[in-house]
Amino acid sequence: MIKLFNIRGGIHPDDHKRFSAQQAIESLPMPLLLHVPLQQHIGAIAEPLVQRGDQVKKGQLIARHQGMVSAPVHAPTSGRIMGIGGYPANHSSGLLVRTITLKPDDEDTWADNIQPIDDPLALSPEDIASKVAQAGIVGMGGATFPAAVKLNLHKRYDLHTLVINGAECEPYLTCDDRLMQEHAEAVVDGVLLMAKALKVEKILFAIENNKPQAQKSIAEAAHSHAHFKVVALPTRYPLGSEKHLVQMLMGKETPARGLTADIGAVVHNVSTAYAVHEALREGKPLISRVVTVTGPAIKEARNLRVLIGTPVSHLIQFCGGLTKKEDAVQLISGGPMMGQPLSSTQVPIVKGSNGLLVLNQQPQKAEQACIRCASCVRACPCGLTPLEMAAHIRRGSLDNSVKLGLLDCISCGSCAYVCPANIPLVQYFNYAKGELASRQRVQHKQQETKRLAEARTARIEALKKARQEKMLQRKKEMQQQKQASE
Amino acid sequence: MIAAPYLHENASISRTMGLVMLALFPATVLGLYQFGWPAILLFTTTVLAAIVAEYFCLKVAGKIAKPFLLDGSAILTGWLLAMTLPPWAPWWIGILGAFLAIVVGKHVFGGLGQNLFNPAMVARVALLISFPFEMTLFTQPNPFFSVYNLSFNDSLDIFLGYPIPDAFTSATVLDFYKAELSQGISALQIKTDSLTQLLWGNTSGSLGETSALLIVLGGLFLIYKRVITWHIPVAMLGTLTLLASVLFWFDPNSYMSPVTHLLSGAVLLGAFFIATDLVTSPVSTRGQLIFGAGCGLLVLVIRTFGNYPEGVAFAVLLMNGFTPLIDHYFKPRIYGRDRKGQPLSNEP
Ligand code: SF4
Ligand code: SF4
Fold it and tell me: Which of A104, A133, B290, B334 could form a Cys-Cys staple with A148, CB 3.0–4.6 A?
């Protein structure tokens, strides 16, 4: 048994996992069209390599990564490229992102270059990381940070522990739970490969106690590895937050604005580990993922293996449809605590989609006056004073809310969960963070314009000066010639 | 579109207020039983007046009265005020107090959640200063079904302001100590109500403050239900006990024993229900400990060295005044930062 440390705050919501926890992972029939966005990750958007009309094979690279932090995109099945253009994103904004639309040919033939790798554990750490990068793997718990970038952290940090986040602390979601139960060997293999890439000597695989079967399966699959420990976590939200998970396991806080790597740990998600296994054993890029479709307003809750790009409507249909009219339900991408509301069923499943939650539409409760009950202060895992931050934001003084730690807020929603006055605290915080970010962008732009303008004036000045000097020179020469001729 | 989180705890302002009322219930029922019809009439009047005052203020402020009236905060303010009044006080004390609490104590500051001072205590102190006679005239317990119980008609007379016959009046334990000690009588010689009387509430005092046992029970219920935390009550009672013990140990002849301090007057009601008032107490745990300790210290100082036998209301109000300051200087430490707000260094 490993000793656990305590974290502050947190809440104990009903986990609502019973809807889908017993449903084995099923494959979804092929949809009519796949809409594969070029940006499914944090970082630079991928650059398309195909054109309208091209035939592609399953697993073929269709968009390559650009820059240091980015991820490539692969064809989820074989078929024809119907076009590349704006398509609604899997996000509350519903903004258009550049998306490749693919019409499956129902052959599902793999590209020739997809070949199993004999002994990936014999590969060097650099090779493992580069194969992970080539496979387009991103953090699949929802953060969608390119996984390879995290695997390369050992170059800059002193790492000793790989933490696998099997907390799945968001209520309702069960995709990681099922993956751990049904594919324990593969997940453990992926973890071992990542540990190799990170050059760490210790693996802690943390799973909350509401998933006893998964704890057992993983422990069995990993029993022959002495440096691999399965840790039973109490069930508490938000233990799946990287920094809090690491604190509970190692008793140390990650410095503000830093990474868990600062204290020697890197955290990866269960689904990511599975994708790493697929990529390094089978040579398969990330083209599908497990998604939990659940909630009181879906007929049959299920865990599905879904091709990236599958429209949400297709998942709903496979799960028997909605129990109510579409305008009486609330569609959410992700879990109920941090998920994004979706405005359309047309949006595609992306690499970071862990759940499709369908709740009954509920009227927004009227915001009441804060009674200073301090419930939010007690619930906050980050030691913040949500009531005061919200009061400052309401008054328009964003700077004061920053002084109170707004930028340390992880938007976990624990404070809003407990607030008796129905104050939408997280909405205030997210609004303020967005506002600050855009202010920063504007400021950056202004500085940039100023710099460019200054550079331009300097250039013009230099030219002028050069011209004047030239003229002077010429004058001098002419005078000299005159003198010489006289 | 509604944004996350989509799950919410079963919490609401009216539920919070309701739980506090539930916690007050046993001590209130005992008080009403103990002091008979005059107390029932006073209690009902005070609570009703608080509701009327709230309605009036909301109307003036142009707010829709219904959702606010239903939040229960006005009822609770009236209720708490009534608990601290002399049980046989006349009707106008209740009405005036309720209006003072709601209008001056709460809405002048901007309504629910905005007030700096505990409204019930603002009213109580204003009444005490303005009507020292009515506010310090206490009666012996005269419970229903006992020979001392007053008929409804006689009670109505008392309620309407008819002078209370001397035979019924009685000094509280604190009054008694104050008077005797000031005459140079040793505290050890003073004979007042027994501990069991104080525990069960069979003693003279304010309407809802007499039964130590039932008040503590209600307080524990609130802690269990997580409406309040233990910090303020423990810090307040702990500080009071500690300091009172030191004085008592130093000179038992001139100082009240810590046990009497704890079990008499408004200390327990204050520690569990008044100092812990959500709106007017600090939000961080450290802040709450400091606030509680401050209340305990001030109660002792006022009781021992002040002009009034009781000091809970003054103590809480004074500390309320410090709440914004305490909140400002004693925030929780932010994750990943030291107390000064600087990022932790990652040296091992
Ligand atoms: S939980 Fe809500 S009502 Fe309570 S202090 Fe925080 S913001 Fe105010
Ligand atoms: S959303 Fe932010 S302020 Fe609220 S509990 Fe989470 S970290 Fe704290």
Answer: A133
Residue listed under structure tokens 């607030």: A419
Residue A449 — very low, low, confident or very high, per pLDDT cuts 50/70/90?
Answer: confident
Count of CB atoms within 10 A of residue B217's CB? 14
Nearest residue (by CA) to ligand 1, atom 7, is: A387
Beta carbons within 10 angstroms of residue B220's beta carbon: 14
For residue A367, which ligand has an atom nearest its CA?
1
B1, B6, B223, B334: best mutation site toward chain A, by most A Cβ within 10 Å?
A: B6
- The protein residue with its alpha carbon nearest to ligand 2, atom 5, reads A380
Q: Cβ of B343 and A258 within 8 Å?
A: yes
Q: Give the residue extent of every domain in chain B.
A: 13-329
Q: What DSSP character marks residue B100?
A: I
Distance in angstroms (rounded) separating the CA atoms of residues A307 and B167? 89
Terminal CA-to-CA distance of chain B, rounded, Å? 46
Q: What is the DSSP letter of A329?
A: E
Instruction: Tell me which chain A residue has its CA closest to the CA of residue B345.
Output: A255
Tokens of A450: 């100023």
Helix, strand, coil % in chain A, rounded to nearest 5: 40, 20, 40
**Inter-chain touch A8–B12, beta carbons under 8 Å:** no
A11-23: average pLDDT = 94
B277 to chain A: nearest residue by CA? A373
- Percentage of chain B modeled with pLDDT above 90: 64
CA dist B255 to B236, B241, B249, B258, B310, Å?
19, 13, 9, 9, 14
Q: Which helix (H) or strand (E) holds A268?
A: strand A265-269
Residues facing residue A94 across a β-bridge: none
Say which amino acid occupies A25. I
Q: Highest-confidence range of A88-97, A323-332, A347-356, B177-186, by mean pLDDT?
A: A347-356
8 Å CB contact between A181 and A168: no
Amino acid B66: pLDDT:
67
Q: Is A407 on the interface with B (CB under 8 A)?
A: no
Which H or E element spans position A162?
Answer: strand A161-166
**CB–CB contact A373 B16 (8 Å):** yes
Tell me if B321 sits within 8 A of B291, measured CB to CB. Answer: no
Cα four-point dihedral sign A260, A263, A265, A266:
positive
Phi-psi region of B118 (alpha: psi -120 to 50; beta: other; left: phi over 0): beta
Which residue's CA is the nearest one to ligand 2's atom 1?
A411
Answer yes or no: are the C-beta atoms of B329 and B286 closer than 8 Å.
no
Q: Counting runs of H as helices and runs of E as strands, what totals does chain B give?
A: 15, 0
Alpha carbon of A403 to ligand 2 centroid (Å): 15
Ligand 2 contact via A382 beta carbon (within 6 Å): yes
Contact B6 A339 (CB under 8 A): yes
Q: What is the pLDDT of residue A289?
A: 96
Mean pLDDT of chain A: 93
Q: What is the nearest CA distance from A114 to chain B, expressed in angstroms?
A: 40
Nearest to A13 by CA among A171, A222, A150: A171
CB B242 within 8 A of CB B178: no
Is the pLDDT confidence value at B347 over 60?
no
Q: What is the pLDDT of residues B186-227, one digit of tens each?
A: 777 777 777 788 887 788 889 988 889 999 999 999 999 999
Q: Measuring CA to CA, which residue among B229, B217, B305 is closest to residue B268?
A: B217
Distance from CA of B7 to the nearest CA of A (A): 6
Dihedral, B191, B195, B199, B203 alpha carbons, nearest 10: -20
Which residue type, as a one-letter code, is found at position A331? Answer: L
Backbone dihedral region for residue A238 (phi beyond 0: left; psi -120 to 50: alpha; all else: beta): beta
Question: Model-level pTM?
Answer: 0.89
Judging contacts by C-beta atoms under 8 Å, the chain B residues touching residue A377 are 283-284, 332
